[in-house]
Fold this sequence. Notes:
Number of helices: 6
Shape: globular
Largest sheet: 12 strands, antiparallel, barrel
Helix content: 10-25%
Number of strands: 32
Amino acid sequence: MSYGHPHAVPQPGMQFITKEDLTGQHIQNATIQECDVVNCTLTNCNITKADFKGTCTLQNCTTREIDVYGTVTVQGGSFTWGEVKAGGQVIDQGAHIEDIDGYIPQSGYGGGPPPGAAAGGAMAGGAMAGGAYSAQQNAPPPLAPGAHGGYQAQQQPPQYSPPNGMSPPPQQGMGQPPQGSMVNPAGQWGGEAIGAWEGVKVANKLVVAQEINWLEVAADQANCCEACCERPNLYKVYNEHGVELMQASEKSEFCNRCCCNPRHTLTLTYVDSNTQEAIAMVDRPCKLGGACPALIDCCQHEMTVFHVGNSQDLIGSVKQPPCGGMLRPELHLGTTREPVGNYFANITGPCCCFGGVTEMCCDQVFEISSDKQSVRGNLGSIVKVKGDAAQEFLTDADTFHLNFVDRSFSGEQKMTLLTSLLLLDYMFFEQNSPFECRPCAGEGETCCSITLFEMYCCGLLCPCTIKCKK
Length: 470
């Protein structure tokens, strides 16, 4: 088996396995990408884009973008962003499991009753291998006979241990508010308020929703005074439980916004949704990027985020490198004012074509990596979520998911990543809607047009558009 890969370098001391069929193996300390894993035991591994089949055991692994066709027992570590297919199941034994479609929360003790269980399936008390349970506190779920004579815990929602003093969030679904209820606007879990900074620090995922401005929509579709009706953007930021943490509101001059949108000079203010206090500011200068290649500083998009009231108290910065990543959009994120070449994260977008009508067909994924030599997306991802036809055709309001694979990000780094998400929206998704209709067009003029996608090269955007003339 070959572990080499010309475009990815494993972490020191870890082997790298990609596009292999792994069957009946016990693998330790490896980075595994795009593999079929069958009847394997994996220990201390980083796993991305894998299919699990048969019976597999994961011990203290970090796993994302997976499909489960068999039975996977997860002992510690994290298991995120994937799907349990028909006939598959995931057995949780002390792991962090999140955003797995088709996952039914359960804990398993396969092959017989767990240590200390009485004949009727009741727990006799005391410590249990792999976890601390007692008869009075943290008792495990009741046991029921398994299909093959073993024992299996009855299905119950997983227990969540929130940060210091916080009440647990609702369990109806990860990444969305409880069914039948509105998203909590006050930044609360279980009735107890949390601050935006603390909420960002402990979040494994942030959801950013842009508010729709109906005046913009009407002007855009009527093709009348579109530029003059361009309004400042407003974004709402939620955690993975649907709790609103903060809002980001744009402030910009009317003439600048009308003439230079979406490349105009602006500031954004992050406001805590609970206290209504400003917690951070973002500065973005006007750049020519998109209209010309990102070859010199005046054509390289950038944003700087800093603490309120002191522009010298820097939180982080985001900037497009020279040539803008060539055929893939690229951003560098750092803790200094000049992050290019001195960054803690590198964001890489789709190759060549995105935006336009493709926003209705698929998600637009921007991968967050530690550097160009590492596995792409090893730190997380920014996903511009596919919208429905009406939203994409009529508005430029978007929804984004910011996924943190690396759990070691500081609050300042997460705020910088959140700022990079907003910069990507202004760079690529704040154009007019892909469909434009001009019912009053004269003879020989364009009466309607559809932008299929935007072609990207060295920071330059070239729309591929179909036009119909009268």
